[in-house]
Specification:
Elements (H helix, E strand, L loop, with lengths): L2 H7 L9 E5 L4 H12 L3 E6 L2 H11 L3 E4 L5 H10 L4 E6 L14 H22 L3 E12 L12 H6 L1 H12 L3 E7 L5 H7 L3 H11 L8 H13 L7 E4 L9
Parallel strand pairs: 1-2, 1-4, 2-3, 4-5, 5-6, 6-7
Amino acid sequence: MSAEGAASTQREPGLLGQVVVVIGGSAGIGLETSRRARAEGADVVLTARNPERLQEAAADVGAVTTAAFDATDAAELKRFFDGLADPIDHVMVTGPGPSYMPLLEMDADQVLHALGDHAVLALEVARNAAGKMRPGGTLVFMGGTGGRKISRQLGIVPAATAALPPLAAVLALELAPVRVNLIAAGFVDTPLSASLLGEGLQARRDELRATLPIGHVVGPEDVAALAVHLMINTSVTGATYDIDGGQQFVSG
């Protein structure tokens, strides 16, 4: 193939000239999404709670700017978006981690937080980001496949995650032409998973490798690839995409 022919087959980066905001971008899925968005030509804005880890992540991906704050604090979140130069194109929200406490051991405040944190965060991000976003941009939220299965081990997680697909769909209608999509993940091998499982992490990895139809454990880079695809594909909105390697179809 001639040099001219080879050049003509090269794909232009899918997010070239676009701005991607990653809320919870200092580790795991958020960090991998930032890396992939940068590889697709985007300018990346990173936020996280921990300033030190945030700066390390920003240096890693070459973020254009950062902001250290608690995204579940509505006032802080509003202040962040108010201070952003517009327009922006995409917002990825990784959200707070799940709570696996037995239901009867939870007090009222814990139940409210477990049920509301993801939904309230999604609503507050949508409310504050929409006015700065270009048409066709997207909000990408993280949920889980836990809403499909009831077990003592999952506790309140099924109830908390089951609310997110219809919420994303309604937001997609209200915010159009801004798009809204949800990623429902199973187990993902992230630092958060490591902190939740502790010494049981390796046993969980081994179990999933042996039982998942895909034969390997889902990693943050797998979720990041899906998140960036949802940013690039302008025909997708109001959808929930599972990424669990078939975990919901097998035991465990």
